[in-house]
TrEMBL record:
InterPro entries: AB_hydrolase_3, AB_hydrolase_fold, GDXG_lipolytic_enzyme. Gene3D superfamilies: alpha/beta hydrolase. The keyword Hydrolase applies. Residues 111-334 form the Alpha/beta hydrolase fold-3 domain. This is Alpha/Beta hydrolase protein. It comes from Cercophora newfieldiana. GO terms for molecular function: hydrolase activity. It holds the Pfam family Abhydrolase_3. Keywords: Hydrolase.
Amino acid sequence: MSKIPTVDGIPVSLIPASAPSTERKKLVTAKDAIDPTPSRFSLRLSAGWWRSLQYVGLSLHFLAYPRPPSPSFTKTIPSTISKTKGEFALQFYTPKGYQEAKRAGRSFPAVINFHGGGFTIGNATDDARFARFVLEVCNAVFVSVDYRLAPEYPFPVAVDDAADSILYLIHSAKDLAIDPHKLATCGFSAGANLALTSTLRLTQHLQTAAGSSVPSHKVRAVATWYPITDYTLSRAERRETSVRPDQTLPDNITSLFDASYLYPPELLLADPLLSPSKATDEQLAQGIPPHVIFYTCEWDMLLREGEELAKRLGRSPIGKDVRYKMIPEVPHAWDKAPDPTKPAAGSEQLYEECCKALKGIFEGE
């Protein structure tokens, strides 16, 4: 029986497997990908509707036993990198003994997480099920970022906020009982893109005068779950390469995501902070952490571009330590299924596997 695809816990309608082939063309600017361009007002209305549905879907997702943890505390921080000034929240999940260790001057590794939702919907608490494994397996602090969302805040605000969150933790590491030399980024879907582009943006920032006073630190790893990595590919082309096009995300939701985030129309889609697959070897060698944990989904339209980037990161001259796994017979974001009776099949085993790898990296294995 076919599984119904979801978007971060929201069941969505299927695209017919017999959808006609479309002519392929190279996408250069946002206008090439989105034509005609919807009004920003209509996009805000649509985004609000989907955010409401997503809240319901994730509420069901959280009901399944074992229940995920709640944040221990929240910090609201100002943006410093983005040209669009404002503030955003960080949700902190802390392991057992955190307060006692903090009083004793001990520190923990930290995993900095970015939620999914096409840069348009979602919240920092969406990945709480994964947070449980970070706390229990890694004995690390899980910091999930409520980066600002499109269409209100299109590219590159989310990337800037993501890099700013890392920067804040580096500067505040002592006060937060975090070891700044044991950091990792993580994310799901759009957040998986940010897990990669945040470190590229941070590296870019550190190469400027503004980044010259940043304390010593080390981002050791990135764990990226079914990321979007190349916006120069059309959604139609991606669907055609999928082994199960009927299980890919439908056009109405991907069109909303793309129109919301890819703005203004002259935005270049090959920007490495948007499409990390388009970064140069030098940019990836300098900006991506030394260890990469990379997951893709077999029925996902993003499978091919993710697989290609994972292989590239592991090859010379980039030469990262890449641990890649394609999860068979599941659609995009399968682990966020809105089933109140049980976690998505295989999700907890894979979360544990990922966190064991992170633990080994933090411990120098």
